Amino acid sequence: MRIILIGTDKLTYFLGRRFSSKGYFLTIITPDEDNAVSLSRKLKATVLTGNGSDPAMLQEAGAYQADVLLSLTPRDQDNLIACQIAQDRYGVPKTVALVNDPENREVFEELGVSVAFSATEVLGSMIEQQTASADIRNLVPVTDSGVTITEVVLAENSPAVGSAIKDLKLQGAVVACVVRRGRVLLAQRRSHLHAGDRVLLISENDTYGQAQKTLTGEGA
Fold this sequence. Notes:
With 220 residues, the chain is an alpha/beta fold. It has 7 helices and 11 strands. The strands form 2 sheets. A 6-stranded parallel beta sheet has the order 3-2-1-4-5-6, sandwiched between helices. The longest helix is centred in the middle third of the chain and has 13 residues. The N and C termini lie far apart (37 Å). About 5% of the residues have low confidence.
């Protein structure tokens, strides 16, 4: 299978790692040159620097031969354009788009995107289905891919309280979303964490302990 993955953050790395481990032919497009260098060193993939919604960039990425295109950038407009160009101009059979604003999901589907998903809705639904019992618990230990999804509840004395997500210096882990007073908030780099926040953490199995310590002061 040939996959084109467009993204900018650690989610791109985690998905790229999983696709590579399955032997897929993977091409990643990222706008950040430093991120491109890092991904090319860590993954068995072709990594290009540029705008994933640019037709010329998609052509360079081999869109004519791609089976699937995933666009996971923070900009809904870019994700929609990339999917539409992939389908209409290059005939990519399946497109997947991240919808940062849940209200845009139906629009994406009406405009022909194969799969449009809102991380806020998906993660929120998953958390709501869990029965609260502990401050830290594994929701989905994905053992075959080396990735664990964990919910962490921040206490008043947690070292991460008051910090912006971008300042946490998480290695091999990413904050996916935060549930605060019953509302699901998609994590942004400048978002600050509060006491009582329920943090959904996606981490590599071997870095989970250190990520837990960064958030709670315990573990590692």
